[in-house]
Amino acid sequence: MSDATAKREERRKFQAIRGTRDLLPPETALWNRVEQTAHEVFSTFGFGEIRLPIFEPTELFARAVGGETDIVSKEMYTFEDHGFVELEQVRAALIITKTFDIKDVSSFSAFERNVLNYVSTLRERFNSAEVPKTPENERVLDSILNLFERMNHFLKKYLETPADSHADMFDQYLLDVKHALRSFHFGDVLSLRPEATASVCRAYIEHNMQQLPQPVKLYYMGPMFRRERPQKGRYRQFYQIGAEILGGSDAPAIDAEVIEMLMTYFDKVGLHGATLYINSIGHNAENCRRGYVANLKAALEKVKDKLCPDSQRRIDTNPLRVLDSKLESEQPIIATLPHIADHLCDECKTNYAEVKRQLEVRGVLYQENWRLVRGLDYYMRTTFEITAPGLGSQNAVCGGGRYDGLVELLGGPPTKGIGFAIGEDRLILSLQESGKAKVEQGRDVYIAWMGEHAYAAAIRAAKDLRNAGFSVELPPLEQKFGKALGQADKLGAKYALILGDNEVSEALWTIKTLSTGEQQKLPEPELLQFLRDQKPESQ
RNA sequence: GUGGGAGUAGCUCAGCUGGUAGAGCGUCGGACUGUGGCUCCGAAAGUCGCGGGUUCAAAUCCCGUCUCCCACCCCA
Fold first, then answer.
1. Which are the contacts of A182, defined by CB distance < 8 A and separation ≥ 6?
2. What is the CA A223 to C1' B68 distance in angstroms?
């Protein structure tokens, strides 16, 4: 292989992995603006920033988001956190062992010996708590011993009266052994966070935030991870900006204020054409949502044969999800289904009415959408979603809702909660599509210098200007003035500071306004003041 | 996981029914050794995503594969 070929192959090998991407200037300036605006707006509503770990125990997400959801069951990046490389290698070797011929007793007993050795090593580590001393691990160790006992028993019987039909049975035992080997955990099972609400609740509990004045208002921003197929506005590493209100009351005014804050933020950040959809999905009780779901399920069963396979499957897995099917052919059918609003209990009904009234008092425009259901298990009562133009089929920039039971579900005190998450990638996409993405990039001053003496002055000037907050480009090598001004132009500089022998000997510096071509000479101490005066508005 | 589209210079793309690689923009240098944007000249940069097949000959035709994009699923 030639050097060139090798190099090319390496270049191909090292690229951002699927669903992840680099954000580069000038785009990153827009990201900063979006995030800065969130800091500003959220803090005016009394929210404080919380910074959370990127990974947590898998169990936290399984419990909070719901073990049956796609997010948890197939989209999380999960790994075991341990340092036992050699144990893992032994396990891998045992697991790849091929199926035995049931008559080949000697190779089976060799395998058995190896496994039992391995199990006793694990047992030692387990007893000394080097590997997690969990009931699950204990069970796994016992079950392996148990399986071998039964296999030996089975084998003895087989050798007395051989029968081929029994070979399958033997294979099944073997599969069970391999499965058990795999189920033993050397370390904690962790996952990259697919969302942040669970972490916020965990932190609320862990830091006893119920002792703080209630409610506690927190916001966060950062990357989340889901292993989905990438498409427009959807990445495997994506960014969310979210906020949660925990504790205190569940007054409808709180729901309304969170939404008001959200709309204020979108307005400040320059998002146009955003539409707010709201709904109430009641609470998990027989006289409320559970009753509705049963009702819906029955209605769906009646029209089952008219639905697509996906929707048919959802009748059992998650009937509410049928409601947001996008299939054209299903729309007339869905229109005939019962509405949840007609099945809410009295409290949820008045709660929803009051949320709407509170929104109106705040001048927040909304559209009711009875088909709006949230994908995560923890939501109840108020749910909302905001869509924006320019996003393709993934047109939701924000989703949120109330989750009163969640903190308790995670082992904390009974606590009210409501929150939302903004898809930052999608927000940025929509801003870019609507042309609201202009962010100033150029330098303020480009220093065109020539000659040793001038260079000393140029360094001094650069230092002063930067201290004063101007963005300054100081070329490292001497250039002809023509070239320097060309560079200044390409970099989008507003001014060129021209420093050559003339300037040094006269002690007058030349400052040139590039847009107009005007230039004037100033004594060194007046330069800063000149630039400050020129600056249109320095917030 | 399932479908559809696309991969040619840093970017946007042309390259017809096979004949050995092009443009514009950008980058760098020069015309232009104290004044930018314009113009002109020049240069660097591609084994045409990768692998295989057909052929005297493949960017072009066939097969496979990878990646990206879009949609479904799911969700922010």
1. A91, A95
2. 22
Q: If you average pLDDT over every residue of chain A, what do you get? A: 89
Q: Are residues A409 and A281 in the same domain?
A: yes
Q: What range defines the domain where residue A154 resides?
A: 83-186
* Count of structural domains within chain A: 3
Nearest protein residue to nucleotide B47, judged by CA and C1' positions: A5
pLDDT number for residue A2: 45
Domain end position, chosen among A162, A186, A210: A186
Nucleotide nearest residue A500, measured CA to C1':
B34
How many angstroms is C1' of B40 away from CA of A472?
A: 33
Asked if residue A12 keeps its beta carbon closer than 7 A to nucleic acid strand B, the reply is yes
**Does A442 score more than 90 pLDDT?**
no
> Is A105 inside a domain boundary?
yes
User: Does strand B come within 7 Å of the CB of A233?
Assistant: yes
SS3 track for A143-197: HHHHHHHHHHHHHHHHHHCCCHHHHHHHHHHHHHHHHHHHHCCCCEEEEECCCCH
- Measure CA to C1' and name the residue nearest B68: A18
Residue A8 lies in a domain: no
User: Beta carbon of A502 within 7 Å of strand B?
Assistant: yes
* Residues A177, A133 share a domain: yes
Instruction: Render pLDDT for A52-93 as a digit per residue (tens, 0 to 9).
Output: 999 999 999 999 998 888 889 889 999 999 888 888 889 888
Strand B at less than 7 A from CB of A510: yes
Residue A487 lies in a domain: yes
CA of A481 to C1' of B28 (A): 18
CB < 7 Å to strand B — which of 56-85 in chain A?
Answer: 69-71, 75
A250 touches strand B (CB under 7 A): no
Indicate if A398 and A370 belong to the same structural domain.
Answer: yes
Count of alpha carbons within 13 Å of A482, Cβ hemisphere only?
0
Write the pLDDT tens digit of every residue in A185-232.
999 999 999 999 999 999 999 999 999 999 999 999 999 999 998 888
